[in-house]
Amino acid sequence: MSAQFPAVRVHSAAARRAVVLTIMLGTTSVILATTIINVVLPDIMRDFAVDQGRVQWLATGFLSAMAATMLSTAWWVRAYGLRRTYGVALAVFVIVSVVGGLSTSIDALILSRIVQGAIAGVIQPLAMIALFEVYPAEERGSAMAAYGLGVVLSPAIGPALGGLLGEAFGWRAVFFVTLPLCLAGLALAPKTLTCFEQERAPRPAFDTLGFLLLCAFLLFVLGGLAHAQRAGLSVGGLAMAVVGTLVCGAAFVAWEVRHRSPMFDPRVFRNPVFAAASVVGFAYGMGLYGSTFLVPIFVQTISGFSVLKAGLLLLPGGLLLALCIPPAGRLTDRHSPHFIVCAGLACFALSFLLFAHSSAQTGFWTLALWIALGRLGLALMIPALNAGAVQGLPPWQIAQGAGALNFVRQLGGAFGTSALSLLLQWRLGVHQHDLAAAVDTAAAALAASTEAFDDSFIAVGLVFLSALWPGWHIRRA
């Protein structure tokens, strides 16, 4: 049986705004935690004496766990209600954040990030579910602008905030910065989310086998990429990763279709508009989280920027994003989403194709301008993508659609971060081999690193260009 929630009647505009504010405090906090750590990864590598392959699990472990638990949100809401699910999950997130900030080993730090991601996966879809239940169809574009502001602005400004905190207080501060937002959300929830109180009903059974199959699928996909980065992937290892991914993925879909109370209903993808939006969402996750992982490392290792300067580089783009999200939501209310989504994809692709021509001599404001162009694309894309994805779904499938769209976006982010890290390492080895005979070894090493990053930026641009075709199919019915 698919998730089904009764329509929530919230007649007051002030009450709706209170719901948006409360739910977005938690959503913004968990998404901010996704990327805020990226800019201080070099400091963590130095403090714990680990390499890039190990420290990247602070990013990919979070995203993987987030993807794994995201599809369970509909069950939590059916079993305990939206208000209680939000409050308990946010309280656990606060505790785990404190534990992460106090960690004394890299293993403890990675474990805390994985648990953070698991809780974040439950919290993030709650905002989309709440907004679609309290806003009528003609106002959902503007509501999605508020949602998109948290979803996109957080990873956009996260590295900037992380740079400021890392420079002033050290990397541990990035684990504590979201606590005020979380505590504010916890304080407001009992008063503003009372409209989501539900009548007592038998608690549905949790889809344990489905959850385990999903975790196995993610383990084969992302574990294979991580193993390839550490030791190189042999033909046998590649075959095992591919076969394991296909078998677990197929078993998960087959089980969910037949289960009476599935964690996720794959039939939501029968809607062609939603299916197209999901492809765009996967590409968006790959590009956004992958590039947010690459850019801070690039400007610190190639351009020689400090942690603070690397963080500030993303600030102009984040401010532009904040200004453009509301008008983008109004555009979505008036026009078919496919025009707006494709315009956003083109801007982001151009941004990183320009990045592919950067070097150690490229100036701060040039790089900031290219990033701002990509953030403009994200501002256009997100309200249209979120509203357009579920426009043709029946009301009883909206919760499943919200969870599925968030899931594919986070899966794209986890896959993109791992794949781009692997691509960067591979291209670095290729260019180092090509320049091995150079007399000036220091200059050759810098040139090889620059070319490897440029190749990776081209890959990001191509991912967004490839999403233009499905983006064109997100048409208003």
UniProtKB/TrEMBL annotation:
The keyword Membrane applies. This is DHA2 family efflux MFS transporter permease subunit. The chain crosses the membrane at residues 18-37, 57-77, 86-104, 144-165, 171-189, 209-227, 233-253, 273-299, 305-325, 337-357, 363-386, 456-474. Keywords: Cell membrane, Membrane, Transmembrane, Transmembrane helix, Transport. It comes from Denitromonas iodatirespirans. It comes from the Bacteria. Belongs to the major facilitator superfamily. EmrB family. It is found in: Cell membrane. It is a multi-pass membrane protein. The keyword Repeat does not apply. Pfam families: MFS_1.
